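Open question from group meeting: does this chain pack into something compact, or does most of it stay loose? Before anyone orders reagents, we agreed to write out a predicted structure and look at it together. Recording both the input and the output here so the notebook holds the full record.
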Amino acid sequence: MPNRYKEQSTSLFPNLKLKPFSALKEKFKDGYSIRDFASDLMSGVVVGMVAIPLGMALAIASGVSPQNGLYTVVIAGSVVALLGGSRYQVSGPTAAFVVILAPIAQKFGFAGLLVAGLMSGILLVMMGVARMGRLIQFIPHPVTTGFTSGIAVVISTIQIKDFFGLKVGHLHENFLGRLSDLFAARSSWNPIEFYLGVFTLFFLIIWPKVNKKIPAPLVALSVVTIISVSLKRYFPSLEISTIFSRFNGIPQSAPHFSFPWDFPGPNGQKFILDFTMIESLVPSAFAIAMLGAIESLLSAVIADGMTQTRHDPDAELIALGTGNILCPFFGGIAATGAIARTATNIRFGAKSPISAVIHAFFTLMVILLLAPYVSYLPMAGLAALLLLVAYNMSEIKQF
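Structure tokens returned:
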């Protein structure tokens, strides 16, 4: 007994066992067959179909270009899945991050947003090393319910501009100021964009009742894009805002390596990375890390409940931190475990983390092969998708 006590007292983390690739190793140890791979392939493609429009919409809502959301899906979606402690977790940009990332992008520019994401990744790795993953069980459920409901209100408010086609300049950062700006621009609404948004929202709600095998966002956004392109072809004078008109399209190229601080800073100015800037970004990085840890581990717990499995929370935090460290070097924003995409992954038969890797690869293939066509997605359609996401995460009954 004394010897054991002496041995433990000399170790900084006496029970620490870092296990990268833990979920992947456990699955391969249990056995991984061709049939399992076929299931992972199917679920990965389906989740990819869901992640692509969401990745673009959430990036736009966060104040950056749509391709940055897709790059996040590719990098974080594959890295976190391979290194993580959950067999079924799907990581990427999420709606919860919008309320944190949008003010950062507005205040510090795109470079500041990427550096804050990098710093949050370092904090997440430190949390995993310190075995803080199990602390999630001590967060009261009413706190998470109120938090997600508040996020839903903010997200839905941000989407009003594109859903109604309002011509609004700079929106206030605070909620009441933003509502005042939107109300003041009410006379500038675009009926065509509004009808496209309503049609998309209606389609997103009705389609799952007709067919649950094909994701509703894929069908709804494909149909509304065809309608939008047709209207512009026969009525060129119509004003319909699309990804192409707003962001000059999506680059048809894979994410490439760049230093995060080399991107533009606030108002397009040169970003200066110094101690003062790092000190200014610490609160933002801490907020990203804490929210990412909470949402990711909650998602993993939900996945465990659906599949009767157990995840390694500390390995999941380290994997999430690694993903967030790498993402900024490839133009990706902050990522965390996505509850809805993880649930979809399970429902469509995922067997291992390979499914999430396939979803990331599928997204990359869409960027390389179909980027010019995806660029014609109307902004009103993406706004309708996020309005439904906000409603689903609002937890109205529990609130």
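Observations to bring back to the group:
The beta strands are 91-92, 336-337.
The first strand starts at residue 91 and ends at 92.
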